[in-house]
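In practice, a research group might receive sequence data for several interacting partners and want a quick structural hypothesis before committing to experiments. The following worked case mirrors that situation: the sequences arrive first, and a predicted assembly follows.
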Amino acid sequence: MSPRPRTRIQQKNSEAILDAALDVFSRHGFRGATLDQIATTAGLSKPNLLYYFPSKKAIHVALLSALMDNWLQPLRDLDPEAADPVAELLGYVRRKLEMSRDMPRESRLFANEILQGAPRMGPALESELAGLVADKARVIEGWAAEGRIAPVHPKHLIFSIWALTQHYADFDSQVRAVLGPGEPDPYPEAAVYLDTLFTRLLAR
Amino acid sequence: MSPRPRTRIQQKNSEAILDAALDVFSRHGFRGATLDQIATTAGLSKPNLLYYFPSKKAIHVALLSALMDNWLQPLRDLDPEAADPVAELLGYVRRKLEMSRDMPRESRLFANEILQGAPRMGPALESELAGLVADKARVIEGWAAEGRIAPVHPKHLIFSIWALTQHYADFDSQVRAVLGPGEPDPYPEAAVYLDTLFTRLLAR
DNA sequence: GTCTATAAAATGATAGAC
DNA sequence: GTCTATCATTTTATAGAC
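A structural hypothesis for the assembly, expressed as tokens:
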């Protein structure tokens, strides 16, 4: 839905718009975001912004679909042939936590969309996401059946990994308020805690 | 900020407005919500709605502050003198999951506010919430020091309980999309899963 | 208390000059 | 490609009749 960037300046402006839109949509959701805010953040006028994208909705869709692939890559990479299934799952947790740390706006963009009932991503969730999770749930179930990890509900295990890692991005302001100003970066401690949690849950 | 309800009809309308506002704010966040939507949902005209509350902001503040108390009650109730600390913490998890099941709109209202950086609740988080968590974290630390629960970072333990239980309310549409139409109610399975998870994490 | 009418500002989007 | 000017709607809020 966005014009394919051809010149260098188009490339640069398209990226600036998408970056600004990520800022605004991730904080305020689709309806709470305004083109004015996005244009100002991107350093462009509103009509110029609408020269690159035909509508507010088009920007939102461009962001969501560009993100979906990257967001699910760590789960796709979960290796059914892994020598150590517990370590493989701990690695997945670590990668997801790193994504929360390094891409908090992307996490909040998704969170906003899901909170609102997934009006735009609904179909993608029911097909692509549900299919991938079903696939990996079978892998996890196999590991449990072979006694290589402790028995556990595979889909709820995946939910718990998402919930725990994304919490540090989505609820960042609450986490920092609770930890107080003495502890500026919660991620190192979170990494240790989550490693402990999933080790105790999964190790035989 | 809301007029104290005196007559029966004022009582009824105030409640209808707050209930409708909870619907709309919890889905769309503060800026994404409109008075039109709230008024229509409440079955009132827009000017009539503004007879009861002076502004959109006043409705939002009324909801948030009325909710804060109820929301934290289970954590306040965590008993330092409990005979069985693991069971006490599992009971807290169960109560929080029941709140997600029975009050999903309230959970999403908070989630939206935190996602947006807690513009209205920020001070309450830094004082009331941070104080309560610090208090209960000392209790949990004491239990661990006495060897009555496994050693664990107390504040991240609390974060993980919030993240895991609220996930089922806040990300309901994703959970249902992933589980598919065959499993209409995820809560019974979630209760079993979370009980297992925290037992393995905390039991000695 | 509730309504119609309306003001005042904001917001998404377009026209057209340069 | 980018801008100023502007339009059409939506949105928050008020005025004033009943």
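Before designing any experiment, note the following. Chain A has two domains: 1-54, 65-202. Residues 34-36, 46-47, 50, 54-56 of chain A lie near DNA strand C (CB under 10 Å from a C1').
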